[in-house]
Amino acid sequence: MASDSGGTPPGPPPSVRILVVGGGYVGMYTALRLQRKLKQRLRSGEAEIVVVTPDPYMTYQPFLPEAAAGSISPRHVVVPLRRVLPHCTIVLGEAQRIDHTKRTATVTTLATGEDGTGAIEIPYDEIVIAPGSVSRTLPVPGLAAHGFGFKTIEEAIGLRNHVIEQMDIASATRDLAIRDAALTFVFVGGGYAGVEALAELEDMARYTARYYHNIKAEDLKWILVEATGRILPEVGEAMGKYAVRELRGRNIDVRLDTRLESCEDRVAVLSDGARFPTRTLVWTAGVKPAPLLAATGLPLNERGRLICTASLTVEGTEHAWAAGDAAAVPDLTSDEPGRETAPNAQHAVRQAKVLAENIVAAMNGEPLKEYRHSYAGSVASLGLHKGVAHVYGRRLKGYPAWLIHRMYHLSRVPTFNRKARVLAEWTLAGLFKREIVSLGSLEHPRAEFELAAGRHPGPDDDGR
C-alpha cells in the first residue's frame, strides 16, 4: 500500500485494521515488524496498518546531545516514517481520545484547522497505544517563559544555536551583567538527558571559546541542579559519583539535593539560596505519560500508565496493546514482586518486537508470548571521549565507556542508511575541526523578508 498523507481519513476498513497510535520507538518498530509479518495480507488487502503520529519521523533521542554539540547532523537523528514504513498508512495528526468500546480513535490532523471539517474518527480492530511521554514540568515561576526543553530534535538544535548566540552577545556587550548572564547556563535534572546535554554542550562551548578574542573557557559558568543526592542513577552509584567528580573537574557546578525555586526575570533561584542571573535554563527533570492515556477509558496505574500484562495486552481488555513509556509492564526477570520494566528505549525496542508478534499470533488464533528481558545495563556520554557505563555488571569510565556508548547506539539506530551516515559523520568529525556556526535564523526564516517588506516582527514573532 502507498503511504498516505496528513489529512485524509483512511478508506473503508479491510478485514483487519491495526491502528498504531504514536510514531516513536514502540510505534515505529511495531509497525515495521508488522509490515514484514503481514506482507501478503497487506498486499491482498486483508489487513491494513495505520500509524497516527504528530511528526513524520521517529527521533532517536540518545543522539540528541551529540546533535546539539554538532557531532551529528540533525537529519541523521530522525528516521522518516514514510520511507521505513512503505506498506503502512501514515496519518499526520494527534489522537485526542480513544473509545475502545466502539473501537474508534478521534484524531485531529494537519488539515483539521484548515478545512473546518473537524476531527476524524478512525475505526480499528486492533490498537497499539504508544504515544510516548511528555516533559514533566512543575509550577516553577518563570519556567514557561524562559525554560528550554530537551526532548525533540528541534529543541536540541535550537539550544545549540542559542548557546552560541549567547557567546556572541557576551563578546559584543559592554554591560558586565548581560555578559555574565549570557555566559551562565543552568540545567535542571541529573538524568540521562540533563547530564549528557550539559556535558556535550559544555564540551562544544569550551572549544568554541577559542575563536572569541575576549571569551575564555573559564568565563563560561555551567550549573547542574539535581533534586536528589545522585546523578545518572541508571549507571549505578559508583559510576554516578565518578560522573560528578568528572563534571566538577571541568569546573561544572553540580548541586545535589537542590531544587529550582524560580527563574523569573531570568534569575535562577535555587533551594540552597543561590541566585544565578542566566539567559539559558534547560529543564530536563523527567517525563510523564502522554495526556492521551487519560482519554482512553482503559485501566491506568497510579503514575498514569496503562496497566499491561506480560504479553503486552492492556489488562482486562481484548484487542488493545501497549508498550514503552505508556505501559506499566511487569518485569518477569525481577525477584521483586510487582516490579515493572523501566520506561526506556532498551525495553521499548524489545517490547515492540514481542508486541508485533503477539498481534499476529492473536490474528492467527495462536498463543501469546510473554515479554522477558534482563536489563543489560546503561551507558552515558560525558562529552567527547568521556563517559560512564555499567554493562553486565562491569563498570567502565572514560574513553572505553564513551566508545561503548557510541558503538551501542550506532547498533541501535534504525536502518542501515542512518548507521552509515552517522558513522561517516563521526569519522569526518575525527579528521576535521568542530563546526561552531549558529543558525538561529532558521527558527524565523521569514523575518528578513518581512523586514524588507516593511513589517517589523517583534521579538516573539515566529515569522509565520
UniProtKB/TrEMBL annotation:
InterPro entries documented for this protein: FAD/NAD-bd_sf, FAD/NAD-binding_dom, NDH-2
Domain annotation FAD/NAD(P)-binding: ranges: 17-351
Oxidoreductase found in the keyword field: yes
Keywords, sorted A to Z: FAD, Flavoprotein, NAD, Oxidoreductase
Cleaved signal peptide residues: none
Gene3D superfamilies cross-referenced by the UniProt entry: 3.50.50.100
Database matches in PANTHER family: NADH DEHYDROGENASE, NADH DEHYDROGENASE-LIKE PROTEIN RV1812C
Family: Belongs to the NADH dehydrogenase family.
Name assigned to this protein: NAD(P)/FAD-dependent oxidoreductase
